[in-house]
Amino acid sequence: FFFLSMFIGSSQTNYEESKVPSFEVLDPLLTFSGYTINSVKKWEKVRRPELLRFFENDIYGKLPKKLKINSYAILEEDNNALNGKAKRKQVELTFKKKGKTLSYTILLYLPKNKVKAPIFLGYNFYGNHTITEDKAVIISSAWANNNESFGIENNTLTEASRGKRTHRWAVEKILDAGYGLATIYYGEVDPDKNDFSDGIHPLLYQHGQNQPKPAEWGSIAAWSWGMVRALDYFEKDADIDASKVIAFGHSRLGKTSLWAGATDERFAGVISNNSGCGGAALSKRKFGETIAVINDRFPHWFCDNFNQYGDNEEALPVDQHQLLALIAPRPLYVASAEEDQWADPRGEFLSSHYATQVYHLYGKKGIETKEMPMPNEPIHNTVSYHIRTGKHDVTDYDWENYIKWANAFVK
Ligand code: GCU
After folding, report:
1. How close is the Cα of 83 to the center of ligand 1, in Å?
2. Quick one: which of 346, 335, 337, 328 has its CA closest to 382?
3. CA-CA distance, 352 to 355, in Å (whole number)?
4. Count of CB atoms within 10 A of residue 324's CB?
5. Is 2 exposed, middle or buried (0-12, 13-18, 19+ CB in 10 A)?
6. Which of 106, 112, 150, 152 has the largest count of CB atoms under 10 Å?
7. Which are the catalytic amino acids?
8. Cis link prior to 191 (omega < 30° from 0)?
9. From first to last of its 411 residues, what are the pLDDT tens digits of the chain?
10. pTM, whole model, 2 decimals?
11. CA–CA gap between residue 113 and residue 115 (Å, rounded)
């Protein structure tokens, strides 16, 4: 994606710090009407709601709140999975509305002999069966992007892709640390294409509607909704500590975990791995991927109102550090990769620094310095940050740090 993007629109893509436009960093504690917030109470009553409303109406889009789980089914369960290390469950959630049905399956690995485990919840890109070699993991029949190296043809997932993404999921490390892992194939909630007739969309429409209105949901909001409903299920599962669910996501799915954490305060912590534009990175820096480019290439991700800010970032009365601030005072981890310039690592770092102001209201520490750390030198506080060497990806290094942070601030 990175190299491709360098060719498409290379005239606009800026990778030079000296060419970052100067802009005013918007104060998370200054209301739209110019009032300075100085207490948790006012933040929660006045400022947080107005920011959330703006992100909802102009960036990710609003989603009807009424659609709840209709039923769930434990498709499969094994108390001796992963060579006796884990309890595995595959749970299908079903939603129904006006004759339409949507189902998606959560794959759960839980530490054995643990009552009520804290868990990481995150979507995967190519199906639950790609995150492990475990033969018992059910292969999704949902639409998937073709991918030659994963043997995915005709938009269909098969055995050929089993275990292809194990390097992104440190399942053993997670279990050894006493956490469970829950993952869902994002294509089951909404296939990742510019098509609003599939996935969850038909269940969200009012009578006669066939596409979201300008202030209504895009796919990121739809995926976030799927995480929120998974959390509803966790509240019913006696093996899980639903008060300790950490929303995790990489890249477009990191944009998704941030939005899930912002919209649902039940998430106990949030991880943004290389989420970039429309995620943790500051839009007004226009470094790497920009609003115009992301809306052009992925017109279905955000709500249509977001288009008005393409090549017009100056007009935005918010920036992404204020999205991060919506997660306060809950633990937040923002991570970048050195070679992932498309996602603007510095923009992700500064964003976590500027969001820290709101954590201070709650007496929590975050990214106190404006000086970016060296690669592989993490800063761990309630708001944590690291930039690691290497490319756009999720690695064991990332997970080791997420676990340390979760041990210190979530568990
Ligand atoms: C593309 C896109 C990014 C996104 C990434 C991903 O590179 O431009 O915004 O984060 O895909 O999800 O892998």
Report:
1. 35
2. 328
3. 5
4. 31
5. middle
6. 106
7. 251, 392
8. no
9. 555 544 454 457 999 999 999 999 999 999 999 999 999 999 999 999 999 999 999 999 999 888 999 999 999 999 999 999 999 999 999 999 989 999 999 999 999 988 899 999 999 999 999 999 999 999 999 999 999 999 999 999 999 999 999 999 999 999 999 999 999 999 999 999 999 999 999 999 999 999 999 999 999 999 999 999 999 999 999 999 999 999 999 999 999 999 999 999 999 999 999 999 999 999 999 999 999 999 999 999 999 999 999 999 999 999 999 999 999 999 999 999 999 999 999 999 999 999 999 999 999 999 999 999 999 999 999 999 999 999 999 999 999 999 999 999 998
10. 0.97
11. 7
- Rounded to the nearest angstrom, the distance between the alpha carbon of 164 and the centre of ligand 1 is 19
CA gap 51, 375 in Å, rounded: 32
Phi, psi torsion values for 56, nearest 5 degrees: -70, -50
> Does any ligand 1 atom lie closer than 6 A to the CB of residue 1?
yes
Ligand 1 pocket residue status of 348, Cβ below 6 Å? no
DSSP H helix total and E strand total for the chain? 13, 9
Cα distance from N-terminal residue to C-terminal residue, the chain: 36
Pairing of β 332-337 and β 383-388 = parallel
Q: What are the beta bridge partners of residue 103?
A: 94
CA–CA gap between residue 164 and residue 189 (Å, rounded): 21
- Expressed in angstroms and rounded, the spacing between residue 250 Cα and the centre of ligand 1 is 9
Whose structure tokens read 């761990």? 380
Q: Per the structure block, which two tokens stand in for 221? A: 């909001």
3-state secondary structure at position 262: helix
**3-class secondary structure, 189:** helix
Each residue of 95-113: b (16+ CB within 10 Å) or e? bebeeeebbbbbbbbbbee
> What single letter denotes the amino acid at residue 371?
E
Q: Do the interacting molecules here have an ipTM over 0.90?
A: yes
Q: Is residue 277 in contact with ligand 1, taking CB distance under 6 Å?
A: yes
| Eight-state DSSP code of residue 209 | -
| 250 close to ligand 1 (CB < 6 Angstrom) | no
